[in-house]
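Re: Re: token formats

Sure, here are both.
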Amino acid sequence: MNGWLLAATAVLGGGVGATLWGVATGPLRRRVVAQNLSTALACPGLLLLAQGYDRPAYVDLALVLALLGPVGTLVFARLLTGELADDPPRAWGLTWAAAGLGAAVVLALCVAEGPSRAMLKVLLTGALLIGGNIVASHALSGGIAGVRRG
């Protein structure tokens, strides 16, 4: 087991396990935040696994998840507008912590990869992951007018 796999185990075991528990239990506002954070934690885990196992296909999977995960959160925000309007989720601390984790993983992988096409794919994945989850968190908290009005 190398350091990349150990870091992936910590991210996937601790972070995604906690978010799965959050999705399965608790009030609606915690469930939608946990659903959004599961993507924000699974993508860095997949990137770390790709480096640890030397499997570039895992980067492709992380890229697709970084693209579709926040879109799924936006669909939930749109469908649950009425229920979330009274008590909107506020998870900016968790959002920025997950964005920081994603940025740290992307930076470490870019240093390990060096200048190449693979580094560009990792950078694109990181940009989609961080930007998408910040936009989705903003929508969940009622910050996008079209989502709030329903």
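Second one below.
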Amino acid sequence: MEFQQVIDTRQSVRSFNGKQVSEDVLREMVSAASAAPSWKNTQTSRYYCVFNPEKVNEFRETVLPEFNQNSTKGATAYVVTTYRKNISGFNKATGEADNEVGNGWGAYDLGLHDMLLCAKAVELGVDTLIMGLRDADVVADFCKIPEDEQVMSIIAVGYRTDSVTQKPPRKSVDDIAKFI
């Protein structure tokens, strides 16, 4: 698949058909994500893949708010994304933030990684929905996430149904860019 086709095909899917996503597909997605750049190559992004059918149902029912439960019916995996705190954007010797962004660099790096994860999903014929509304403590407890990691998002993974709506239009380059 050409890269432009990946870009054009990727969209947030809220209608999944229930076909099981394999561990191998999830591994390929995480492997692709790990190729993204990170602050001083610190590689602080972490992924918690929930794909056992019983655990997926338990996760959906106990971790997600009701509207995200409804948006992800038929998704057969969830990927919880985190980053290790106080590393990206911090001076290794002093432990001090290198600039005003601090842990924002961990979030930035994770965003780069997550985009590659979602792009790889498209190439593999899998769809995703990135969700940011969650109770981080409940997510961390379910996935046994250590306290030195920051929960960022939950990505539903599955195969779309035929009823997926058309991708919404994007703003033009002239609307979002200033050339100096």
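The CA atoms of residues 17 and 161 lie 5 Å apart. The chain has one domain: 3-176.
- S.
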